[in-house]
Amino acid sequence: MNRPAAPRSRQLTGGSPWHRAGLRWNPFGEPPPEDLAALIVPTEPADAVDWLRQPRVVQQYLGDAGRGKTARLRRLAVFFPGAPYVYLAEDEPVPPLPDPAGIPGPLALLLDEAQRLPSRRRRRLFAAVARSGGSLVLASHADLSTEVISAGLTCRTVCIAGLSTDDLLAILRRRIAWARLADAAPALPQPDDAQRLIAEFGDDVRSILDTLYERYQDWAINGGRHPWRSVT
């Protein structure tokens, strides 16, 4: 599902169900682009930024849908504001890709769903990055390291799988802090809540956020059960 965007511009009143809950909006709605990076809990290698400042290197993220590949690309984009981010949508024409030689900085491109780029165009892209001496970030469902290395680039692959209770709690609590009204103290998930979500959805963070959006809507708007079982 596509979660609706958080209503940033709406003026909330004292009668708003979100206001009464100590929130400005549903914490699990889709954040605006300017807020997204701050909501991402860093789990990529600590030296990812330094790695991408080296010449002719690639960081490849592999994982199933919903595991956080896009989130990692969005977070890295904060450190490289000159690097374009391109998402390749399924069953849509491939957009023009920027020329790596024309990018002012070490990171030439953040390419999301890179496996959707036809192999001939991937080879051209990798060769252009190698010639420019820049670096590249890929999010993919298929391992492209052989093509990357064949182009003369050094590839580091991060496989995204598994989700710890602590990491999920950090993600959920950061979302609630983002939506919290000043001086309010909305209920926070506890370890038992996170464990139940992991038991239900595994490491599919996207499905967890989608489900919590619906649960928060039902609780705040319709008077349903509180999303956190730890809240009595």
Structure, described:
- Strands 2-3-4-1-5 form a five-stranded parallel β-sheet.
- β3 (107-112), α5 and β4 (135-140) form a beta-alpha-beta unit.
- The chain has two domains: 48-159, Rossmann fold (3-Layer(aba) Sandwich); 163-232, no CATH class.
- The protein contains nine helices and five strands.
- The protein is α/β, with parallel strands linked by helices and 232 residues long.
- α7 (165-179) crosses α8.
- It starts with 16 loop residues before the first helix and ends in a 10-residue tail after the last helix.
Tell how many strands the DSSP assignment holds. Answer: 5
Radius of gyration: 20 Å
User: So how many helices?
Assistant: 9
Topology pattern, helix = H, strand = E: HHHEHEEHEHEHHH
**Widest sheet: strand ordering:** 2-3-4-1-5
Number of domains: 2
Distance between the termini: 29 Å
What is the molecular shape? elongated
What's the CATH superfamily of the largest domain, by name? P-loop containing nucleotide triphosphate hydrolases
Structural class: alpha/beta
Oligomer: single chain
CATH topology of the largest domain: Rossmann fold
- The top-level CATH class of the largest domain is Alpha Beta
Average per-residue pLDDT, rounded, comes to: 88
CATH architecture tag of the largest domain = 3-Layer(aba) Sandwich
User: Which residue ranges are poorly predicted, with pLDDT under 50 across at least 5 consecutive positions?
Assistant: 8-13
**How helix-rich are the residues, as a percent range?**
25-40%
Report the sheet with the most strands, covering strand number, pairing sense and barrel closure.
5 strands, parallel
> Proportion of β residues?
5-15%
